[in-house]
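Researcher: Please generate the 3D structure of the following complex. Treat every line as part of one assembly.
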Amino acid sequence: MNKVLVCDYEKCSGCKSCEIACSFHHFGECNPSLARLTVVAFNERGLFVPEICRQCQNPWCLNACPVDAIVRDAETGAVVIIDELCTGCRACADACPFGMLKVTPSGDVFKCDLCQGEPACVKVCTTGALKYAKPADIYFEKAVISASQLGGAI
Amino acid sequence: MSYGWAGKILRVDLTKSKITRQALPVEWRTKFLGGSGVNDWILWNEVGPEVEPLSPENRLIFGVGPLAGTILPLGSRTHVTTRSPLTGIFGDTNAGGLWNCMLKYAGYDHIVIQGRAESPVYLLIDDDKAVIKDASKLWGHDVYETDSTLKKELGRNFGVAAIGQAGENMVRFANIMFDRYRAAAKTGAGCVMGAKNLKAVVVRGSKSIRVAKPKVLSHIAEELRNSLDPNISQGIAAFSRYGTTSLLTLYNALGCHSVRNYQDVIFDKMEDISADRLLEEYVVRNISCSVNCPLNCCHWWEIKDGPYAGEAGAKPEYIVINSMGIHLGVNNLEAILHFQNLVNRYGLDSTETGTGIGPLMELWQRGIITENDTDGVSYEWGDVNVIEDTVKKLAFRRGIGSLLADGTVAAARKLARGAEKYVCHSKGMTEVEDVRGFPHWALAYSISTRGADHLKAHGQIDKQHREDVSQRIFGVPDVGIPTSTRYKGKGVKYHEDLAAMVNSLGICAFNVLSLSLKKNPKWAVYMPDYASIFSAVTGIKMSPEKLMKCAERIVCLEKAYNAQLGLSRKDDTLHGRWMDEPCPSGIGKGMRCADYLDECLDEYYQERGFDTRTGLPTREKLRELELDSVAERLTKLGVYT
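Model: Done. Output below.
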């Protein structure tokens, strides 16, 4: 399986560097509302949860698109919009339960395309909350941490 | 097309319920940069000596800088400027929070608020929409409640700047809290907000900040990020982990805490409240205070059991642990964490709160005050119940709280009986880091335009014993020798200018200082390095010399503001035991500021090109800085006769 973008929200500091890096990479402008991921701040609990596109195995957005303008990129596994085909009907945005399809002020729909395999958001995340890796590696690392704690307890 | 700056000033007249917009003049951008610099220029032009701090004509000016909210990993900070109701002179204060970037994304660099609303209101800004709304339901509620209510009603992506009950009741050192936990604490900006009947300024924006040279800036940002990445640099990792609480141990080794109202400078119970204890027992994670900061030096803590079980919050900074802890002889860390929330909720500056209670405890210790002065309660060192009780009374101006609510110096004057001797301050504002053994800090507190303060010329070169950095910047090692009085004028001028630049560009002092203290610096060590960053963001050509001049201009404008109010060299001094009582311990044992301050002041004024007799910028200096109209007004007011 391809690498995936994952988020460990316990590590997120809420700095929003990822949002700005994302909008800067894709639009050349600094603007969290043009980012393809959203850090939701629960600052009364000191908690920040980045919502990211999960590039679903069975994508709501892809299934909802009436003109087949959303496809899976063979190389990265990202679910991407073919801008030339997109009609801007926003059926995909309505279908996505994570709110990860967004609309520019001029009405164009956009979503995370994993930056052709080098996500700009991950590069600027110094806390390690965002990672781009193979699922097997991510979950093995988790198992190691859990096992270490268990081992320590025993 | 505006690069870096959003390009607009929002003007709000609360008396007339009128909101207007003004373009940010290009000349202001190149002369004053943004943030605190432009704020200062607006204050100078609109708040003359005849305008009393609590009159409707005083301005409450919010400013963000051209570098904030961009891809630069330097943090994003808000500057608030006003004529201070605590000191009566120039006042300003700085804070983090999401709010400042939201203001830029909404399309504004500054908000200038004047007048007074008839009844409580709040200002709502949502991109191009800006309206004055009724706040009668919010009035009387604390900062956390106000933040929650507004975010619940409007949305989690709004930035909220609010005052608590202290601001409503016009406590003269009430603060403005940004996004719940970040305090614009100093000089009573929250009191001015309360006097204007303004409960909160709420803002959200969805516009872009554009930069002039994206490719160049991209490269600069990556270099800076590598330098500031805690995963790469050991020094940065330590600051990232501890934040300002790292100073607890350092200052105990040096001797510059204020223990039991400056009676000592080394805290004998430091183990109980150490940074390691805080981190191990209470901190859940580190968080960032503002947008685009890789340091994440702010702590999120939770208390699991005991009398404060269930409490949680952000920070505390070193200053709070000193002012609400060490200064009052408190060695109960959980109580200090609780006090942090308490002052945040009411919207009180923790420094002036602590320095108000400190003298009461010392006067009690010495038998100078009794139950007759204190609503019948005793003021023993470290008594957390009496501290809690006093803070509550203070926010509502009840009982002894009404004595403290006009500021520590005013309270001592009212108490008489020699109480003033036990208050350490400059120009009417107090501070809690002891300066006696540290000439850089003694000088910095004395010449600060807002009164005694550790941030207006903040440097750590001396306290970190960094003779190497001193050599690099000044060509002499002395600025890095903490107890030496040599070249401290040079060091203070540099750091005062640096702070003005940082606050005007809208970035964080800690990121800038962290870079400057790196062992093997590659980038952005000196002030001049920021010229190329400024150019890449704004597209305006800026030479290092020109940028240094901007910083100097901003500082001199603040000096001129105070000069028109009658201030001069006689006010650039310290009061209380800092002056004439020898430092009791630490590396500066035996030192008194009175012994060396004059000599340091002479050198400082010479470095600045000021008149050493008056301590003021000369007319020639002001003209050299293209502040001809400032020189003219000071001449007309008779400052130079």
